[in-house]
Structure to design on (252 residues):
């Protein structure tokens, strides 16, 4: 049975979906839809709370950057709600139950096409993958996703790396997650091309990343984008794989 937290969270997701569909009108949108905006503000206040005390390590500083970020007009972005995936103590539990039915189906599809996950520990291979990622961002088939001057050198500061490779060993997706105690951030999670196999790779990578973070004792994986910045396609994907909005309280 849905809890008040569930209902508030779902209402908030619907508000941000409508906001993006409405063209991301900023303060003008909020004023024109003030009743919905007020309801969304109240929904944020009712969300479950996760407390964060980032350390002074590369992972901790990455977490703090996400939580200390500012949205429009200087509003702390975490006050809008933060998309968080709760990582189970046992990574295997992530794929259990009706909630994960579609995810399991997508993973089976990826595996039938020969896709496989690798953790990347070799420094030289990591540097090569940064170059591959930079190239993919500059030349993305969708101009709206192109990044003329990618900045990904900081990925080398972190230790949770994985790729999804095709049957020939070519990387289709790169994921890098800075971690700090029970928290991690989704610093990099991008396909390195376009196509059905690349799309399936996202599901396989999510499950593998959850399992890897669980092994490191992480309990919460934070998205780096605010709800207003997310595309609705990304929001739909994240909700399907288990991300939900929570209120993160930055302590210290």
């Amino acid at each position: 049975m849905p809890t008040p937290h569930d209902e508030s969270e779902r209402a908030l997701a619907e508000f941000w979906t409508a906001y993006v569909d409405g063209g991301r009108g900023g303060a003008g949108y909020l004023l024109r839809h003030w009743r919905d905006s007020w309801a969304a503000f109240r929904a944020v206040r009712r969300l479950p709370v996760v407390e964060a005390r980032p350390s002074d390590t590369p992972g901790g500083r990455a977490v703090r950057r996400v939580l200390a970020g500012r949205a429009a007009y200087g509003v702390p972005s975490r006050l809008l709600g933060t998309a968080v995936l709760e990582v189970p103590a046992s990574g295997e539990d992530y794929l259990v139950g009706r909630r994960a039915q579609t995810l399991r189906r997508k993973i089976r599809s990826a595996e039938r096409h020969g896709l496989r996950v690798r953790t990347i520990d070799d420094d030289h291979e990591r540097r090569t993958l940064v170059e591959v990622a930079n190239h993919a961002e500059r030349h993305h088939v969708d101009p709206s996703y192109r990044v003329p001057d990618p900045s990904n050198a900081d990925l080398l500061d972190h230790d949770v790396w994985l790729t999804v490779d095709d049957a020939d060993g070519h990387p289709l997706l790169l994921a890098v997650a800075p971690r700090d105690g029970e928290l991690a951030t989704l610093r990099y999670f991008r396909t390195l091309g376009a196509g059905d196999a690349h799309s399936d790779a996202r599901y396989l990578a999510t499950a593998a990343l959850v399992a890897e973070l669980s092994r490191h004792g992480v309990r919460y994986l934070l998205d780096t984008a605010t709800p207003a910045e997310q595309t609705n396609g990304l929001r739909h994907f994240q909700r399907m794989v288990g991300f939900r909005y929570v209120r993160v309280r930055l302590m210290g």
About this structure: The mean pLDDT is 91. Residues 196-215 form the longest helix (20 residues). Residues 4-87+219-250 form one domain.
